[in-house]
UniProtKB/TrEMBL annotation:
InterPro entries per UniProt: Ester_Hydrolysis_Enzymes, SGNH_hydro, SGNH_hydro_sf
Name under which the protein is recorded: GDSL family lipase
Residue span, SGNH hydrolase-type esterase domain: 64-250
Record-level Gene Ontology MF annotations: phosphatidylcholine lysophospholipase activity
Superkingdom classification of source: Bacteria
Pfam family name, one: Lipase_GDSL_2
Amino acid sequence: MKKRRLNWTSLLFPLSALCFIVLSFGFFLSTQELFKTTDQPKSSGNVQDQGSKLQDSDLFMLGLGDSLTRGIGDKTGDGYFDQVKKTLQAEKKGTLSSVNLAISGQTSSELVKQMKQEKVQSLIKKADWITITIGGNDLFRGSGRLESIDLKSANQSKIQYEKNLHMILDTITSLNHDAVVYVFGLYNPFSDLADEKTSSALVAEWNLAIQQKAADYDRVVMVPTFDLFQLQPNAYLYSDHFHPNQAGYTRMANRLIPLLQDHPGEDTSK
């Protein structure tokens, strides 16, 4: 009786196809974090709890926005926000308190809504520094993300984003004339993928809009990030290929810290 020989070549294609499907599905699941929105800031309690824990400190830093201020992708959980806080606490002679109200997946429209809450406005009034990351979800939801970039939809999203950013900055500056607001610019997490030129051009347009809005206010500063992830995105992005990893957040923190040191802050609660 002859033994049947296994034809490995015939199995190569289906095995390769199966591996591709598994990897693609894993990538799809990981990127869904970008499009999730939670009712409250992740792992930080509700706004009332945040306000009640605020110390009577010399300086107060407030974080607003999306998953980048939340720190998604950093295995330590710090993100740029807590990295900055720890550095400043080590340098400052006085005490520094902070509250992070960022919500993973939040868009600019949702931030406008969040800022209408009385407790949020109360914290804005007390802040010496306010850091914001907002716009990534607006852009990559509206443009079609990886599959195909819809320029018409992206432009419509940009128009609404500019209106929202104006309302966000107007609200903050009207509630607190002394705080310095730091708005992070956007980067292109897909700069090493197909359609890189189109996606990078879109990000550049949105960054220009942020810069122009920031220029309308004396105490609003845009913090660029595009170049931080431009040449070696894989070295500074998390496995979902969207959020920064720990090294990426360190780059963001290192860019923000000197700007905060330029303005040591004033106690706006007095």
